């Protein structure tokens, strides 16, 4: 019988294991205890500054067409009419059944407190920190929410994908997974893993789950799904079981030139992601799920000389799921006329993405105002509930 080997010793000797341990669920302490609430939250960071004015087009605003010679949109340009004033970009046309079912909504003219410098890096950091400034911000708002709720475990929330999800960074344990993670073990390594994990039922269960996930992959002769679809499928699998929160990012929203094509491609990936979540969630889980997609800032109201748009301020939140009160475009519309724009170039922000995220978390988890305004989003005034959830 081999001498006992601690988990710590095993991890330091992990050269015996032919897998990507940095991304493996085996490195995450996993518990299968139920979370203290039954609803689900998915947060998607749209990296690059999504142009909300092109996604949900205010074709009813008399100033809109003149500001965007080739990006004016509206039903006459193939967009899907939403309410007689706003129209949905054709790239999200596959989501119109979700809109009609009342499970898709949008919040217009929102932003973080970030202003003027228009740096992707700072903008994304502030969005994920959830604070008014980056000074002293070390953890993310979604992790602070987990810290404020008793009874959560590492299995409660997943950070998914290759990108570092700062909004889930912090003291609360969070599980991680990436489409790059593959569990390929030699027979000797599998035996060693069995010996190490046998005394620990939770770790042994995690190993079994990891093997199952690896075995359910496409195999050498089958084509893998696109990364964003794999991420959505994995999120749906975990949320259909013990997990309650998933966060990941989608890239490709920086549309300085050739926006029509670039934005259409990015929106197609977003539509695929939402439809995969809806389809793959089992047992009615989609009906108690809220998906919140947010971006670091919007883009300029006027298009530039390369048929694109530059970094702006006011942007758009995308909301989906059976727990969302959909079929509506929310937000206080500031207008696009003379004197209405921020610095005479951007959509004027009239709402704070943090406040809307806070109200959604309150509705899903029951977390009180004091924790949301004090710990999760320090110094935030949540204001009035916009009624985004059923």
Shape: globular
Fraction of helical residues: 25-40%
Any low-confidence stretches, pLDDT <50, length ≥5?
A: 1-34, 215-222
> The CATH topology, please?
Alkaline Phosphatase, subunit A
Q: What is the assembly state of the chains in this entry?
A: single chain
| End-to-end C-alpha gap | 59 Å
What does this structure look like?
There is one protein chain. The chain has one domain (27-188, 227-376): 3-Layer(aba) Sandwich (Alkaline Phosphatase, subunit A). With 390 residues, the chain is of the alpha/beta class. The protein contains twelve helices and twelve strands. It has helices spanning 7-12, 52-55, 64-67, 96-100, 120-129, 141-148, 187-197, 201-215, 227-239, 259-280, 353-365, 369-376; strands spanning 40-46, 56-57, 80-81, 87-88, 104-111, 157-160, 175-177, 245-250, 289-295, 315-320, 328-330, 351-352. α6 (141-148) packs across α12 (369-376) and α9 (227-239) runs parallel beside α10 (259-280). 46% of the residues are buried. A hairpin with a 5-residue loop joins β3 and β4 (87-88).
Quick take:
This protein is an alpha/beta fold and 390 residues long. It is 31% helix and 13% strand.
Can you give keywords for this protein?
390 residues, alpha/beta, Alkaline Phosphatase, subunit A, nine-stranded mixed beta sheet, three-stranded antiparallel beta sheet, 12 helices, 13% strand, globular, disordered N terminus
